[in-house]
Specification:
By secondary structure, the protein is mainly β. It has four helices and 18 strands. The structure holds magnesium ion (MG).
């Protein structure tokens, strides 16, 4: 079980901390889910045991018959902070990677209908595959990145991070008004449109185009 973050171009490994995830942060995804742009960011957490390294198998738990991919830019935190202003937010960033917010859509829909938490739908083992982290000094503008998800060679999702509703500086500022951000914390910044089902035997590739990618096979428990 991977619980460390690998930094590109370095032997250094950082212990993985909290995993924050944003929901409904791309307008076209909000539309495809037939929901509304939230007045405040939608935030949920995954446990560190959800993390998965490149090449490892994503396992759909037996309780679900409908697992979805959500490709997302991941921000890694490199400095501890609380009540961080948007102006200083990038000082707290270690770097960026690509991740998949794997989701049990049937279980999540049940939870939504009943007003129950998403922990099972979003936090199961292998629900958070992430790439190595590209140091921030190699990425001039984190809102000018292309992210992509392909399944069995077919592109399912592709978008620019400029389409995010709440920008990274504001996400960091908002989260840090509630939670202490620690070194090794990860932030999944939301998915663009095109989410869809994956089944046993499928191969999923998530890319931060020009920088890094991860490849995972799907298995059903
Ligand atoms: Mg997501």
């Amino acid at each position: 079980m991977m619980k460390t973050i690998q930094l590109n171009g370095s032997e250094k490994r950082v212990h993985a901390g909290k995993i924050f995830c944003l929901g409904r942060n791309y307008e076209n995804h909000v539309r495809e889910m037939k929901t509304d742009v939230p007045t405040r960011p939608v935030v949920f957490l995954k446990p560190s045991t959800a993390l998965l390294g490149d090449g490892e198998t994503i396992v759909r738990p037996a309780i679900s018959g409908n697992m979805h991919h959500e490709v997302e830019l991941v921000v890694a935190i490199g400095k501890e902070g609380k009540h961080i202003s948007s102006d200083n937010a990038y000082d707290y960033v270690l770097g960026y990677g690509i991740g998949l917010d794997m989701t049990l859509r049937d279980i999540q829909n049940e939870a939504k209908q009943q007003g129950l938490p998403w922990s099972v739908a979003k936090g199961f083992d292998t629900s958070a595959p992430i790439s190595e982290i590209i140091p921030k000094d190699r990425i001039r503008d984190p809102h000018a990145l292309e992210i992509r998800c392909s399944v069995n060679g077919t592109i399912r999702q592709q978008s620019s991070t400029r389409n995010m509703i709440v920008t990274i500086d504001r996400i960091i500022s908002y989260l840090s008004s509630i939670f202490t951000l620690e070194v090794g914390d990860l932030i999944f910044t939301g998915t663009p449109e095109g989410v869809g089902e994956v089944n046993a035997g499928d191969v999923i590739v998530a890319e931060l185009i020009g920088f890094t990618k991860i490849t995972h096979q799907i298995q059903a428990a």
